[in-house]
Specification:
By secondary structure, the chain is an alpha+beta fold. It has 10 helices and 7 strands. The protein folds into 2 domains: 18-29 and 158-309, no CATH class; 37-126, no CATH class.
């Protein structure tokens, strides 16, 4: 079975630096509340459910529960009997395959039928020639491409930044650098925050991309079509670092020195008496990431100051995967309407 990291012939494992985001603002839990985006009929019954780009599986489960007016946790518990048609690498975990779209809710809709609808839609989108061929061209399988797309969806502040974020991921993998994306730690901790502490980066989790080499073991969100497009066909560029200095101004660079200047400007713009900047102590490459703009359940926290610190070198660790469940094929339902990219 393939692992969730492209072959070593295309990845040489070394290391890169890290960044700590320092803030006193509140931590925002990304999946604490999933507000279902529903269309209502004349009788007050939901007729359709919108799954936005970037929602995590937990948010989708909660939204389905509310849309179908079933007890909380019902949709998640239905996974074992839904028999979703997932890749072997997914091991029964549908993260990344609950495709963002508008799904009709019929009178006989169930959690199993809606989940099946979403996964079948993802398979139609992902297993076609463009995605499958693009993944193969980049020496990876479709599941790995979906994983990259999920990180792009979580990290990019705007759609215009998605291609560059994808290229940063490829460049780091090709140079053997840990990805060190805050979005993967947020996923492990079931939150969305700009405050990633040094302790967070030492988290014992297969999703800790500061400590683990290669891709996380599963996608970390459900990406949309644009994120998938750039995940298999990123623009050319040497970028290794990026930071959103202010809204609408995300700066990508291959130069550590230039990146340090960008980080310093970020600190100047966002420094407050309540959250003072911390001066870098060791010259080391950093990569502060952007807030997760794709998740409507995760409003942005106050902008923190940024400081560079040097991490210990972490050896490659094989990421465990989720428990397997049966995945026989399920006939697809009606075609959903794809949500336009915001």
């Amino acid at each position: 079975m393939q692992t969730n990291t492209p072959p070593r012939s295309t990845i040489r494992l070394t290391r890169r630096g890290r960044v700590a985001l320092i803030a006193t603002g509140a931590v925002v839990a990304a999946t604490a509340v999933a507000v279902p985006l529903l269309s209502m009929g004349d009788d007050g019954r939901p007729t359709s459910l919108v799954v936005p780009e970037g929602w995590r599986s937990g948010q989708v489960y909660a939204a389905v529960d509310k849309a179908l007016r079933v007890p909380a946790g019902t949709t998640k518990k239905s996974l074992a009997k839904a028999h979703l048609k997932l890749p072997d690498d997914a091991r029964g975990n549908p993260e990344g395959y609950l495709f963002p779209a508008t799904y009709p809710i019929g009178e006989k809709a169930t959690p199993e039928s809606l989940l099946t609808f979403m996964v079948d839609t993802a398979n139609k989108k992902f297993n076609g020639a463009p995605i499958a061929a693009g993944a193969q061209r980049n020496a990876m399988n479709v599941y790995q491409a979906v994983t990259i797309a999920s990180i792009v969806q979580a990290e990019a502040a705007t759609e215009a930044d998605m291609g560059k974020v994808a290229r940063v991921i490829y460049n780091r993998l090709q140079r053997g650098m840990p990805l060190q994306m805050d979005s993967t730690i947020n996923y492990a901790l079931n939150r969305s925050t700009l405050n990633t502490s040094e302790a967070d980066t030492k988290l014992a989790s297969p999703y800790n991309s500061y400590q683990r080499m290669g891709l996380p073991p599963t996608p970390i969100a459900n990406p949309g079509e644009e994120a998938m497009r750039v995940a298999i066909n990123p623009p050319a560029g040497e970028w290794l670092y990026f930071v959103t200095v202010k809204k609408g101004d995300t700066r990508f660079t291959a130069s550590y020195q230039e990146h340090e200047r960008n980080v310093a400007e970020f600190n100047r713009l966002h420094r407050t008496s309540a959250s003072p900047a911390v001066s870098p102590t060791t010259p080391q490459a950093t990569s502060p990431t952007t807030p997760q703009a794709a998740s409507p359940a995760a409003p942005q926290a106050a902008s923190p100051a940024v400081t560079s610190v040097a991490p210990p070198t972490a050896p490659p660790v094989t990421s465990p995967t989720a428990p397997a469940v049966e995945t026989p094929a399920v006939p697809p339902a009606d075609t959903p309407t794809v949500v336009p990219t915001s």
